[in-house]
Amino acid sequence: MKIGIIGSGIVGQTLGSALADRGEDVALGTRSPDRLGDKRGWGKSLDDWLRGVEHRARIVSFPDAAAHGEVVINATPGTVSLEALALCGTGNLRGKILIDVANPLDFSAGMPPVLTVSNRDSLGEQIQRAFPDVKVVKALNTVTAQLMVNPAQVAGGEHDLFICGDDERARKEVAQLLEQWFGWRNVIDLGDITNARGTEMLLPLWVRLYSMLGTPMFNFRVVR
Ligand SMILES: NC(=O)c1ccc[n+]([C@@H]2O[C@H](COP(=O)([O-])OP(=O)(O)OC[C@H]3O[C@@H](n4cnc5c(N)ncnc54)[C@H](OP(=O)(O)O)[C@@H]3O)[C@@H](O)[C@H]2O)c1
């Protein structure tokens, strides 16, 4: 499957290598495909990233990544996601599933970060309103990048992933893709995109748990 990833940091790189290594056709998007030697946030330089990917992957501009993807992934900071997606060009995203893994966290005053939108709105909804022809599915935003692509690393994979979005078929397709791609067995479909409020508001708790546990390799499990 052709996958376009918008965002070249640790999340874009981790998703991109895992998908490319299982044979998907990945285009990783950056605003600066001409500066492959620059280190990217918590990730590597894109030169190093390309060297580490076993199979086919390419580095392209945001619009080219969006145009390439049958499914597109938003892996940009939530504070700039609307700008980043606008750079992709509406036509390149139209009609597609956009898996939104971003969190609207503002780190400008240091740790812990604060949510820039919460309770009555969410980043997922903002993206859906700005791009009404896109099928936004919020997913993977409540786990660290390494766990996104390998849930079995914690408790043998027996923990839960939340997804939501307005298009029911798109939610079902994303749940299937996440199982096929990474082995996510327990996907909880929360319903429409307003449920992104809840999954994004988990982040202050997630950040606190990270600092208490000393590792990002944990997740939530809902028991009944
Ligand atoms: N870290 C995790 O494990 C984790 C887990 C769950 C969810 N998330 C969420 O995943 C998202 C990505 O995280 P990350 O750490 O990989 O991202 P990051 O390194 O902070 O973001 C990198 C990407 O954002 C682009 N960017 C930066 N400023 C921009 C602007 N003003 N306009 C347009 N694009 C801009 C960069 O462009 P260039 O390519 O040109 O540099 C780059 O592609 C975040 O929303 C984060 O909250 C992270």
Dominant shape: globular
- State the order of secondary-structure elements, H for helix, E for strand: EHEHEHEHHEEEHEHEHEHH
For the report, how would you describe the main beta sheet?
6 strands, parallel
Listed once per kind, the bound small molecules are: NADP nicotinamide-adenine-dinucleotide phosphate
The tally of beta strands, per DSSP, is 10
Using the CA coordinates, give the radius of gyration.
16 Å
Category from helices, strands and their pairing: alpha/beta
Which percent range fits the helix content? 25-40%
**Which strand order do you get reading across the main beta sheet?**
3-2-1-4-5-8
Query: How far is the first residue's CA from the last residue's CA?
Result: 36 Å
Q: Please, what is the average pLDDT?
A: 97
Description:
The protein contains 10 helices and 10 strands. The chain has helices at residues 10-21, 46-52, 62-68, 81-88, 90-93, 123-130, 145-148, 168-182, 196-201, 203-213, and strands at 2-6, 25-30, 57-61, 71-74, 97-100, 105-106, 114-115, 135-138, 161-163, 187-189. It has a 6-stranded parallel β-sheet, sandwiched between helices. A hairpin with a 7-residue loop joins strand 6 and strand 7 (114-115). Bound molecules: NADP nicotinamide-adenine-dinucleotide phosphate (NAP).
Helix and strand layout, with pairings?
Blueprint lengths: L1 E5 L3 H12 L3 E6 L15 H7 L4 E5 H7 L2 E4 L6 H8 L1 H4 L3 E4 L4 E2 L7 E2 L7 H8 L4 E4 L6 H4 L12 E3 L4 H15 L4 E3 L6 H6 L1 H11 L11
